[in-house]
Design a protein that fits this description.
Order of helices and strands: EEEHHEEEEHEEHHHEH
Strand order of the largest sheet: 1-10-9-6-7
Number of strands: 10
Radius of gyration: 24 Å
CATH superfamily: PPM-type phosphatase domain
Distance between the termini: 63 Å
Oligomer: single chain
CATH architecture: 4-Layer Sandwich
Number of helices: 7
Structural class: alpha+beta
Length: about 270
């Protein structure tokens, strides 16, 4: 399955520092392309949020390199869980006293026609199919947890867990079949809290490429107030592979003849002046 993908971040209109980090890369395993999209949203209330998100994405890069070197390796839920836990350990090590480092981390790996997702925090993954946007991940926030389990919520919309915070984490994993006409969106809350689903669907539907989609969605978040950093990764599947067109020999001859004729006419006109 051919893939067009891109990633983009923006500091927004209210923040002085961009704590969102993204990763969008097309990898190669033999003749089978592998797409990886990841978004890490450093926790704004924590001093080391920027460092945490950068380290989380650095861990994604490192784990991918090790995975690709393993012969016969295929994406698994266990690998996604281990990646999230390795990022958690790495970020935990940079916390110092009251300076707690934390970040979300949502990673999507697309191999063949399957998308595997590892997820900690409240960044999100969506599938855009037939003009409709479907949320694939569940926010790991106390309000969502309380509503789902029918219990009182004493912590508002704060995160239940985050990369680098606390003794351990329990990542969520998802496996989704992707169709050739699908789009995959991974983003931070700086996008979906500023923009309604309908607006996202309209812009994705009008996008001509993954890069164009990222730029459109970032602009939507800014137009919606831009109160937070924005991190966006988009993958577009089933994109036709561009082919080099060869000129037909008779067409080339006709083009050359037309050029020569034009030159002769011009010379004749100059001679008449």
């Amino acid at each position: 399955m051919t893939v067009d993908l891109a990633g983009l971040t923006h500091v927004g209109l209210k923040r002085s520092e961009n704590q969102d980090e993204v990763f969008a890369q097309l990898l190669v395993e033999g003749d089978q392309p592998i797409a990886c999209l990841a978004v890490a949203d450093g926790m704004g209330g924590h001093v080391k949020g920027r460092e945490a998100s950068q380290l989380a994405i650095k861990t994604v890069r490192s784990e991918l390199e090790g995975w690709l070197k393993s012969e016969g390796a295929v994406p698994t839920k266990e690998w996604c869980i281990n990646l999230e836990k390795e990022a958690h350990r790495a970020v935990s090590r940079i916390s110092c006293g009251t300076e707690v480092a934390g970040t979300t981390l949502t990673v999507a790996i697309v191999h063949r026609d399957q998308c595997l997702i590892g997820h900690v925090g409240d960044s999100r993954a969506y599938c855009f199919r037939d003009g409709k946007l479907e949320q694939l991940t569940e926010d790991q926030t106390w309000d969502v947890y309380a509503q789902k389990n029918g219990i009182p919520n004493e912590y508002g919309k704060s995160l239940r867990q985050a990369i680098g915070v606390g003794g351990g984490i329990t990542p969520d994993t998802y496996c989704v079949d992707m169709l050739r006409s699908d789009w995959l969106l991974v983003c931070s809350d700086g996008l979906y809290k500023m923009v309604g689903i309908e607006a996202l669907e309209i812009e994705l539907g009008q996008s001509i490429s993954a890069k164009d989609a990222c730029e459109r969605l970032i602009q939507l978040a800014l137009d919606g107030g831009g109160k937070d950093n924005v991190g966006v990764c988009v993958a577009r599947f089933g994109v036709p592979v561009a082919k080099t067109r060869k000129l037909d020999p008779p067409l080339v001859i006709a083009m050359v003849a037309a050029i020569i004729l034009t030159i002769l006419v011009v010379l004749n006109l100059v001679g008449m002046i």
